[in-house]
Amino acid sequence: MNAVGIDVSKGRSTVAILRPMGEVVMTPEDVGHSGPELKELAHRILSLGGDTRVVMEATGRYHEPIAAQLHEHGIFVSVVNPLMIYGYSTGGTVRKVKTDEKDARKIAQFALDHWVDLREYTHMDAVRQQLKICSRQYDLYTKMGVSLQNNLISLCDKVFPGVNELFSSPERADGHLKWVDFVTTFWHAACVAGVSKNAFTERYRKWCKRHGYNFSDSKAANIYSAAQDCVTTLPKNDNTKLLIQTAARELTSAGELLAGVRREMIRLAKQLPEYPVVNAMYGVGEVTAAQLMAEIGDVRNFPRRSSLIAFAGIDPEVDQSGKKQTKSNPSTKRGSPHLRKTLFQVMSIYLRLAPENEPVYQFLNKKRSEGKPFYVYMTAGANKFLRIYYARVKEYLAEQESQGTICP
User: For the chain, what percent of residues have pLDDT higher than 90?
Assistant: First the structure.
């Protein structure tokens, strides 16, 4: 048994190799992430002989080059959650020492102690990593889109108050919003009220046809009436036109970008074996399914459902010692904030649709009827949902493994 512990950092890693009974095969050494150095490391590991396993922490993007390179050489590589390493202690000292060399030894010892529980890094993990990156980018671009939309609404309140409320059309698949496209062309109320009603109606009809939107005479009449009645605070001039159209185009570009990332997320998610099960769960759509799968990853990496609950950070915090009993918080919040956000979005759908026959809603509604605060019953519902997710997905993957459809 050769346990290779790798403490990963940007551009280089520290490698230590141990065997049972404390035998040191290789004292900690630094290895760069260049092709030749990683290739040399792979040959060195292969030359050890016997059963060899490499363990490293999931450190954002930094671990990917070395994990992929070693995996290509046929070496068993396992990428573990940093919290598992953080909570693992080899003991033997009261000093607090934090060095790359000590961390590499600690990871190697962790590999020896958890030898049979280690899961191998596979190509499917690379797909999951791509999906996770897309999901994180989607969250970032969504925040940017909300900021840009609020900015455009604020500007429009000075030139055409309430114009965004005149349209109820949902966002199109290409990321365009009707009201945003409208203000790009009709950027001031005077652009509408400055002509006759019939002239605007005809212009609006041609605009709808050109941009692929439905036209109705009643909608044109409502817009024209609103334009005549509104009070503007910015004049109709080139400066105002520049401000409104620039803000509208930026928001449209953000919408198109989001639509592209959304399509890519769904494409990647459909490559993963558990997608049909996750997408079929109540309150989960294509995008939400992709986000859940991106943040949770392979559920087989969690030995039990409580591990997944802890990873999400929605397990109750307990603080008890002797006679001291502190009231626990509804959640530890130690896990992924992105996963908690997605879970709360699913809970919001449950609250809005109120499906009486769904066990998650029944549990959530029970906590709410008991007078629990909003955050408490939402966390409880998310906890229940995640337990069901774990059971269904793990059972489905086990069935697929037994049929030989996917690799164990």
Answer: 50
Which residues, including other chains, have CB under 8 Å from residue 188's CB and lie 6 or more apart?
159, 160, 232, 234, 236, 240, 241, 244
Instruction: Sketch the domain layout of the chain as residue ranges.
Output: 2-121, 129-268, 275-402
Nearest alpha-carbon partner for 240 in 156, 169, 303: 156
**Measured distance CA(354)–CA(362) in Å, rounded:** 9
From the list 400, 78, 308, 295, the residue with the least C-alpha distance to 408 is: 400
Q: What is the mean pLDDT of residues 213-221?
A: 93
What's the CATH class of domain 129-268? mainly alpha
pTM value is: 0.77
- What are the E-state strand segments in 33-88? 52-57, 76-80
Q: Measured at the alpha carbon of residue 159, what is the angle toward residues 165 and 177, in degrees to the nearest 5?
A: 40
State which H helix or E strand residue 141 sits in.
Answer: helix 123-159
Q: How far apart are CA 275 and CA 408, in angstroms?
A: 17
CB 54 within 8 A of CB 25: no
Superfamily in which the 2-121 domain is placed by CATH: ATPase, nucleotide binding domain (3.30.420.40)
- Of 14, 4, 103, nearest to 47 by C-alpha is 4
Nearest in space to 167 (alpha carbons), one of 234, 108, 215, 236 = 215
Between these two residues, 83 and 221, which has the higher pLDDT value? Answer: 221
